[in-house]
Amino acid sequence: MRLDRYTVGTYSPGATFWQQVAWYYLGSPLVSSYWIVDSSFKCWVLRCFGAKMGEGVRIKPGLKVKFPWRFVVGDFVWLGENCWIDNVALVTIESHTCLSQDVYLCTGNHDWSSSSFQLKDTPIHIGESCWIAARSSIGPGVTVGRGAVLCLGSIAGRSLAPMMIYAGNPAQPIKERHITD
Amino acid sequence: MRLDRYTVGTYSPGATFWQQVAWYYLGSPLVSSYWIVDSSFKCWVLRCFGAKMGEGVRIKPGLKVKFPWRFVVGDFVWLGENCWIDNVALVTIESHTCLSQDVYLCTGNHDWSSSSFQLKDTPIHIGESCWIAARSSIGPGVTVGRGAVLCLGSIAGRSLAPMMIYAGNPAQPIKERHITD
Amino acid sequence: MRLDRYTVGTYSPGATFWQQVAWYYLGSPLVSSYWIVDSSFKCWVLRCFGAKMGEGVRIKPGLKVKFPWRFVVGDFVWLGENCWIDNVALVTIESHTCLSQDVYLCTGNHDWSSSSFQLKDTPIHIGESCWIAARSSIGPGVTVGRGAVLCLGSIAGRSLAPMMIYAGNPAQPIKERHITD
User: Fold this and answer.
1) Mean pLDDT of all residues in B115-127
2) Which of A10, A37, A85, C86 is the most exposed place for a label (fewest CB within 10 A)?
3) With respect to CATH, is domain A3-176 assigned 3.90.230.10?
4) Which of A25, A104, A117 sits opposite C98 (nearest CB)?
5) May I ask the CATH architecture of the domain B16-174?
6) How far is C2 from chain A (nearest CA, A)?
7) Hey, are the CB atoms on C149 and A113 less than 8 Å from each other?
8) How many Å apart are CA C104 and CA C42, to the nearest integer?
9) Can you give the pTM of this predicted structure?
10) Is C48 helix (H, G, I), strand (E, B) or coil?
């Protein structure tokens, strides 16, 4: 592997240089801020930079979003304290889903069989009514089925089935989820 | 699950609105500060907001405490760099225990079988002479027995037996601890 | 265990008190800065404090280095966003190696069989052309063989063989790496 020969393949950031600069130095600090706690304002900032944000979204302090123009969020979604949406590729979060504190969504991968370490960016899709618990991470290309739960500190490198509860590193299915009311 | 129908059940934050605001905008930034490195001062700030702090407690930079009025710490405890005490419920740390860098203590849970995703807050109790190593996490309701060790990056969702060494995600007992002097 | 009897054994920080203060309050904030994005400048600051930095090193925002005078980095190395080099002992990273976001390298250990909890500092050595993926951690004394890969969120407490891919907590070998071009 030779990082001086690194290539990004067909990848493009999806915004102009100045849009990226404005997001990095202005939009992102506002959305990440601990001093500003108003979710509506943070949603508005994200929308100004191209994110699709539903109604009733709650944003906690410390949220980091790489590229808001690749961020699609449904209604009544919670984005917990210090969550990191590392979305070089599209991240979609459907309605009524909760990302707890310190969750990390990683869409960037590299071709480890190539000496140029080519970038591979693959979307993450999280279905409706999921709970991604604190400190867990989701890898590139993962689809999380409707109603799935990923427990504290778990690492999901593969897709998660609907209404199933996963834990561990690597995340394993531990039991089915039943909503009883 | 419908997050627009979210309920907190019997949970209450345990302090007035203005106490919470004062902690969030004044106390917490002082305790978390990298510029201030004096542990005694940080213990004093925590005590002003209701924490019980023993003598000889060492606080490293970046410590985050959610609710100091639900924080009880013994003597000669170490709270490492970037530790996060996410204590919506009571967290107790007994004397001579070390929390290393980036440890996360999580007391908040949700009822995943309820469509209202009801909040369940459960205390964490860490006994005397324990070592919670760097980047490890402890989940809601866990009791850590006297002298137990949780190794680098481990996730403890269940209680840990005294004088036992645990590692992995989920954390597994790997051997007994013997103090030889 | 009695933390009031803590000893550091033969450990010494390797720099004068004022060098440590200058690094902590001046050098480290410059290197960690999100506002400064120029890798060459950050390499220069690290060199001023004793680090050996090769050519073409890329440093992303949020890099934390404990002791730059115990940091040796080859050519065309990438140090990802929020990486934490917790190097009380020497950390060596050879050429063409990539540390992704939020990687944690931990060189500090404690003697858990001693009631004085004596500090044990042991170096980390990462070979050429490795990829330490996002959110993974490497423990004290670990050697990472040339071309090895440590996957998303993995925890390596033991040394990694060359050209092998590891995942999980604890990290397990999952397959051999082949570079096909």
Assistant:
1) 95
2) A10
3) no
4) A117
5) 3 Solenoid (2.160)
6) 30
7) no
8) 19
9) 0.96
10) helix
